[in-house]
Write a structure and sequence with these properties.
Structural class: alpha+beta
Keywords: Signal
Number of helices: 3
Largest sheet: 6 strands, mixed
Shape: elongated
CATH topology of the largest domain: Immunoglobulin-like
Domain Ig-like: 39-135
Number of domains: 2
Signal peptide: 1-23
Mean pLDDT: 81
InterPro entries: Ig-like_dom (IPR007110), Ig-like_dom_sf (IPR036179), Ig-like_fold (IPR013783), Ig_sub (IPR003599)
Helix content: 25-40%
Length: 332
């Protein structure tokens, strides 16, 4: 009975020892999936070394070591030259639980598989690692640009409008929405692509042209439904038009960018002319206020100068008379 109990305790002890030996592991690695070549990037990994002494942490790109953290043997931080990898001075921070490095001057050759490798010291010399892929591209920096779109249209107007994406090394797909309704390919002309070589990348810009009638019922369904719900028998004199251009990059939804513009569609020429007249008066009033501002400032400054001229001599004369009286009193 005692022998069986002793064997059981020995087995439990061995399991605990084995568990402690196998405890060294990388718990997390943080490498961005895609970055812009103009940005700096931070790579980090976290690890659990319970039951072990940390020997080193090594960073690799495509199997080539470019950084080493060795807490037991100075120098603690050791960089290695690897093509496409440029470490930022004083951007490295490593300890018993994590290791972080920062890179800049990215380019095409900075893309690859980045690996964080953690090794323990004697007596077990355990080794564990995790890796992640990072792509360095020329990402769009600005929202798409909508052009040739006006703020007012007549019901019968044929609208022709363009949407241009920002230059990017990734293929960008444009999707149009009119009043929240996705536009079909029937309303689109073939996209035009412009490519230029810059910063080691082939930078592409996509231009999409959309053609439609301003009063197309497909794009005014919600507004007309509201009118029907209100039991109004007449057709409205004006409708709203919201145009949205969405630029998307496949596999990277967080890179989506968009632009939105608004317009009004008038049924009668009189309403359209009145709205244009109102807008022109508003613009004219703003210009008049701007033009009137310098005149007001000039008059204010002139009044101030006049006040100075009026009061300065009086003050001087009063002071002179007072001084003369004091002298006469002293002489007497």
């Amino acid at each position: 009975m005692d022998l069986g109990r002793w064997l059981l305790q020995l087995g439990v002890h061995m399991l605990l020892v084995v568990r402690r030996i196998q405890c060294l592991r990388v718990t997390d690695i943080n490498v961005p999936q895609i970055v812009d070549f103009r940005d700096n990037v931070t790579l980090s990994c976290s690890y659990d070394i319970s039951g072990h002494t940390l020997n080193s942490v090594k960073w690799y790109k495509n199997g080539k070591e470019f950084f080493r953290y060795s807490p037991l043997t100075p120098p603690t931080y050791i960089p290695f030259a690897v093509e496409g990898v440029q470490l930022i001075d004083d951007g490295n921070e490593c300890n018993e639980s994590s290791c972080r490095v920062e890179l800049n001057l990215l380019g095409v050759k900075s893309s690859g598989v980045y690996r964080c490798e953690v090794s323990g010291d004697a007596p077990h010399f355990q080794l564990t690692a995790r890796d992640a892929n990072m792509s360095v591209e020329a990402l769009p920096q600005n929202n798409p640009l909508i052009s040739s779109f006006h703020s007012m249209y007549h019901f019968d107007d044929f609208v022709q409008v363009n949407c241009s994406t920002d230059f990017s090394s990734l293929f960008t797909r444009i999707t149009w929405y009119i009043n929240g309704i996705k536009v079909s390919l029937v309303d689109l002309l073939p996209s035009i692509e412009t490519t230029i070589a810059a910063h080691e990348y082939n930078m592409r810009r996509i231009v999409s042209q959309l053609n439609f009638y301003a009063n197309d019922p497909r794009f005014h369904q919600l507004q007309l439904q509201k009118i029907n719900q209100q039991k109004r028998s007449f057709f409205p004199n004006r409708l709203g038009l919201e145009l949205r251009c969405v630029a998307e990059v496949d596999r990277y939804p967080h890179l989506q960018r968009e632009a939105t513009m608004f317009a009004q569609v008038f049924r009668d020429d009189i309403d359209l002319k009145n709205q244009k007249l109102t807008n022109s008066r508003s613009v004219g009033s703003q210009r008049a206020q701007v033009q009137h501002l310098p005149t007001t400032m000039a008059l204010t400054m002139a009044a101030a100068m006049t006040a100075v001229r009026l009061f300065t001599p009086l003050t001087f004369q009063y002071g002179a008379r007072k001084s003369a009286r004091c002298k006469m009193a002293a002489a007497a």
